[in-house]
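Appendix B. Chain record.
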Amino acid sequence: MGARATDHHEQRTGLLLEQARGRTDGLLRACLQDLPPRMRLICGYQLGWWDADGTGPPVGAGKALRPALALAAARAAGGRAEDAVPAGAAVELAHNFSLVHDDVVDRDETRRHRPTAWKAFGVPDAIMAGDAMLAMTSRVLVRHDRPTLGESVRRLGTAVAQLCEGQHLDCSFEHRADVGLAECLEMAEAKTGALLGAACALGALAVDASGGQVGAMDAFGRRLGLAFQLVDDLLGIWGDPAVTGKPVGADLRVRKMSLPVVAVLETGTEPARRLRALYSVDRCLTTAEVTRATELLELAGGRRWARGQAEAHLLAALDVLDRSLPSGGDATDLRALSALITRRKL
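Structure tokens predicted for this chain:
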């Protein structure tokens, strides 16, 4: 892709994300007004609306990828993007619920270049605010009372349960040295793919798409989720802190069994054996050890493998999309957002 085409693509996806954020924020603010002041403060902070004291301009907001996928899926299914706003808002709440709890579990102190919710407000209040956001998902969805409402609530609930199972597996891997690539991919599909699949499926349900199209959208999102997780794992190792908001080599420092690491460890090569030895210590890696682990991963082809797999899963997702599009659907936005996932800057 040439420089001009790349710039155009980035402008297009940037606009889609901005529009999704603008369309869902109003609904989210209205629904969260019903929360107690303390919970509303923390939820608004997590969503990037204000600082920890409730003042200041909007900062630190996420990219609104999941709402954008829901809106784009509605168009791809032959309907109007605006009909999927409640679906996008609900999925964004579920996503941020998971981030708040994930940060507590991992004891991560920064996200989006500022303190995480638990660091800013304490663990108990952060957990309760995360629970409040999850509880509000159904309240957001009922703002669009359609015949498919029950199915939307069911699908989102199922996706959140799978997300929690994926998080559980991810945590359990930290205490094991025998994690296999197949189960690591299964974890990634649950942890990341389930909610992306739900975003696309709920977007299609919002415009009364057929059962087959809704199922295809879910399958598309899950495949896309695997590509997303692979790139996320690359960012956790080789990402620029100015872009990721986390220290360089953050995942290696805590000996995370990410996809590139597990793929390399399964090769049994000399670099793999050295990497396994580094991972065998019962503590965080030092800066020098992180540097060495990064070198071993590169030498063993971990980065090349992960990048290739991300592209393969993206192509598989797009193939599902191509085979399921209705005649009146427009998947232009969905394709643009899909490409964004594998082109995030390292």
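Further analysis of this model is presented in Appendix C.
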